Amino acid sequence: MGNNIEALLKPQSVVVVGASAQEGKVGNIILTQVVKGKFRVYAVNPKGGTACGLPLYASVRDLPEVPDLAVLALPAGPTLGAAQECIQLGVKAIVAIAGGFSETGDAGYALEQQLGNMLRGSQTRLLGPNTLGLLVPGIGLDTNFLPAEHMRRPDPGNIAILSQSGSIAVGEMDSNALTGVSISAFVGFGNRLDINENELMDYYAEDPGTDVLAMYLESFADPQGFLERCRRIVPHKPVILLKAGRSEAGARAVQLHTGSLAGSDRVTDGALRQAGVIRVYDTQELMDAARVLAFMPPIDDCRVAVLTNGGGFGIVASDFIESNRPGIGAKLAVLSEETKQKIASAALSFAAVRNPIDLTASLNNAMCDAALSALQEDPGVDIILFTLGFQPPAIDENLIDIIIHWARNGSKPMIVVPIGSDIVLKAMQKFNAAKVPAFTSIWRGVQAIDTLAKRGKMLRKLQAAQADPVETAGAVAPTLQPGAPVGEYEVKAALREVGVNVPRSIVLRPGEQLQAIPLNYPLVVKISSAEILHKTEQKGVLLGIRDRDELEKAVADMRSRFATGDILIEEMEGRGVEMIVGLVRDSTFGLAVMCGLGGTTAELYQDVSFRMVPITRRDADEMLRELKGHKLLEGFRGIQTDREGLIDLLVKISHFGEFYQDDILQMDLNPVIVQPERAVAVDAKILWTQG
Amino acid sequence: MGNNIEALLKPQSVVVVGASAQEGKVGNIILTQVVKGKFRVYAVNPKGGTACGLPLYASVRDLPEVPDLAVLALPAGPTLGAAQECIQLGVKAIVAIAGGFSETGDAGYALEQQLGNMLRGSQTRLLGPNTLGLLVPGIGLDTNFLPAEHMRRPDPGNIAILSQSGSIAVGEMDSNALTGVSISAFVGFGNRLDINENELMDYYAEDPGTDVLAMYLESFADPQGFLERCRRIVPHKPVILLKAGRSEAGARAVQLHTGSLAGSDRVTDGALRQAGVIRVYDTQELMDAARVLAFMPPIDDCRVAVLTNGGGFGIVASDFIESNRPGIGAKLAVLSEETKQKIASAALSFAAVRNPIDLTASLNNAMCDAALSALQEDPGVDIILFTLGFQPPAIDENLIDIIIHWARNGSKPMIVVPIGSDIVLKAMQKFNAAKVPAFTSIWRGVQAIDTLAKRGKMLRKLQAAQADPVETAGAVAPTLQPGAPVGEYEVKAALREVGVNVPRSIVLRPGEQLQAIPLNYPLVVKISSAEILHKTEQKGVLLGIRDRDELEKAVADMRSRFATGDILIEEMEGRGVEMIVGLVRDSTFGLAVMCGLGGTTAELYQDVSFRMVPITRRDADEMLRELKGHKLLEGFRGIQTDREGLIDLLVKISHFGEFYQDDILQMDLNPVIVQPERAVAVDAKILWTQG
Hints:
- The structure is a homodimer of 691-residue chains.
- The first copy, chain A, is an alpha/beta fold and 691 residues long.
- Helices cover 35% and strands 21% of the residues of chain A.
- In chain A, the strands form five sheets. In chain A, strands 3-4-2-1-5-6-7 form a seven-stranded mixed beta sheet, sandwiched between helices.
- The longest helix of chain A has 24 residues, at 442-465.
- Chain A is flat and about 100 Å long.
């Protein structure tokens, strides 16, 4: 990379500015750590003297070389001067630790702008300000001003932690390090004045020592750029994200139904799914998911063999595996007779050799070895969950090695749930060192299985998608002029242009007389006007018109009640499953396609799914599968529906959205009736961003 | 208690039968522990000699006294002889450790029956067989054959653990003891040949040293007895239950809709809610819920103040507090200006003094003390969540004491989430010793708040229910004869007798002619026959009959197509919200009332709730609130419904169920239409258990 990011993350030389000999000072804590690194180290402090055995230079100018990286262990004010000096000298990268910038209000914001101005036009890159900085165990780079007795440092591993919050990341590293969880890097980007999460993702996507990206974000520096990177990285390395701030009320206009259903973080959720991100909600979940993906290959199917030495453990684990709430809705493997015989022959007579396999509190090393060996050969088993209480007398530390042996050298992935205290602490360290995923609660262990299954599913999907035909954005562009308010007739005409089914219709403009009607009864008469958003409430819809006589009355009635507006006369559509489809502008990610069950269901059960424009057929299919009411589209109670036609419609609405990418605020097709032969939009509304 | 349970749980004298001097033997491990107890201890082994400094008597007969409790550390076979001897001598209680009984098959079952026969007619009580037995820290009674180096023993505390699985309980005690979690007792009842969970609940309900009952069950020894005890105990002490085995497919007949919706463990869930049990799913959850309830009072409202030293911690915690999925759907407290000023005056200028309150990584003892002090005074705060990373340099161990001070002596309950490694292990021990509920993940901390809120809500409900009028079981008994298959007409007649609204109707028996009809059009004509369960599919329902002419045709049509059966002529009911109401027999708990949204919704969204017969109006109200679609009954989109009428109907269906307690297999009222003025059962079916 020519952008000096490598100088930040793999420097050859580092200077600590604001270094101090005085214990407890930030500049001392940082220097104490940095001197142990595998790079040349310098220390700067105008007071002179020495610190950590190094001479304290008066200024960065005085160093024998221009260092790759300067760590500024200074308050906000002095940080500016030091940064200026570094930039002038051509230092490649700076870590600005100090808080007191934009996060504190107007004065801090101005200070941060000054720092930004300095950087402009230079080659120097800056991490922060307001950050704990970096921890790269492989080269001993550690800028966290946290004393060793307050924070355990992780060993070198293959997980990169990229975090907007330093405290979250160091808290998790510290508690995970107790059991030996290791990382390739932690980078806290704080106020991300210069370097943001996206650039760091680019780096760790290519870093051969990193297999998993574990991220914490409160907002996105560049949402589109983030999604684009995820799409690029996810086929090669998993991206796990804890996106905080999800409870904040969405700032969206809610004039249309689609808008009100897009509340909270549902659009974010759709965008992340679409980009292949694995989403988590707690910091422990973040590290758990990262760890299992860093240690074990994904699984293609999810038939679980549960091995245990306590009946209760096996039952609770099985509940979580087979149930949905709470649980992962997977399956217990059906063991072959051969497998059962092998296990039974090594076990005590009262062991329960089914699945879960309970070797009882008498479990010893030989039984365990035999059982794990037998499970490797069983084609009906995709993954092994070993839930092991360490209390029984026969269990000794050699058992840990037996488990590690099979987890690393066996043909099946394995998850371990060790239950206990002191021995388990030691066991966890051994498991983590050997890259065996172990979790100290049954639920966390079962969730780890789910993570591997999700990753496997995603990879299969990406694989399959490669064979998908390239989707052109529908040759025909709609001719509707954005900006001007439009009635239902115009919206439907535009939909028809892009190939969306709408009822056959004619329109009567004001003053026009009713002529011969080339439509089949029964008909519907509607007022079509940009001013009337909620027609039904105003009795602007007359259904079930059976003949010419009724039609004339309906038109007269409509004209008598509405002074303006066109009259739309449509063929009445037959029954089917009612859906709502729409487009909605999200303040973060832009235009999203929405789909949900129609009627009151979408709203009552919040049963809707979102994807960002543009979507593929595969995305549309996933959107439907995500709905809890999906069964309705799969022949539920014998109801026939043109599910493919609905997918087609969703993709066309996405095309429609592409044409009006910057113009549409919200669009509702409500309902779309999915009939046995076709999906048809029976009502349609649009709100433009402007106009 | 005169039933010798006290002799088991608080013995004055204990003999270990099968005691051994040989290290590693079960009889040695147990004796090693038992000799430390606060009671007289004897040891029996026919080989003689000494063990743990005690003489080994040849037999229980040879002891200087008849001991209260005999712990049989023997294999299954010898257990019988030893038990016989103890029973003959009048030993008050026995713990039978050995496995190899009914859990292993027919031979073991026969052995267990023999043991049961011995006990019959005696005063001796037996715990087990197939159990780890007991751990009562307060008196040093410990029969678990788990060596000290494999299992940490908890200190004396106020949580009683009653468990069907020994391994689950000791695993949890061991891992919890690492952080100093304490208990009043663990009792594993294994195969519960004699003493079961219900009797133990009775004991610990009265035990002054126990404040919380934490239970693990795979099945119920006496389901009705369990529920009855819960109802009695819950007003005084929380009962928390991990009910395992929930994924097992229900063994219910599914001929009616109600039956198919009662699958998996939804009925269990309804029964447990009704009895006030707090249900959990993981062992960690079990101990977490027990601990917070043992340490802190319940809360009446749930406005949470979040205090932290890391912005990210505060945001993640707030997400869990305010969101529903995942989250607890509670509220962040709005802090008073006074509170904010007090906190700000002690904090650094760049601290964020809103809610969450982020004192930043610069948090020190004085700031923390000031913030906790200020929060005590704020009437808008119900509970404090303190999420604290232990990594920053200014944090020292005195902070733990400050937190303990406010948690114990402040006016607000407090939950602590300490994040870190070595210091946190120590801190957890101090917190637990001081009865301050602390949890090492944010989500667990937030769940603890929810547990206190749920307990508060339950106590308020129980309090309010005391003022409820006594509900009589509806003076009128239905006259329907159970057992014989019945058509819709007869079922509805019976419903009318107990006061359930059904449409006005007449019936035409086979051969009867259509006379003048005292009903208002439009009408519905239905075939009413016990043989035809699914009328609609067989076109046995003709709707919207507008006049006499159409009626005659409909009757003729019906008669031409159905050889047998009555013809039911009903007034057609107006529109409303469609519900399904029913009764279903659960193989464990008996007859349950069911309620859900009608149409396809109940089935698609599994949106149903259950309670055991009989229910109160309050139960019925709760059933409705539990439905995700509950809004539909609360004026959603201006829809008017007689919600009180629906509650009335549910209670009457419960009364109906009481009359036919042993007779009804399943009953469907589908739909019940909840109109603005009344709730009316439009269709009704019954299946009897026999007939």
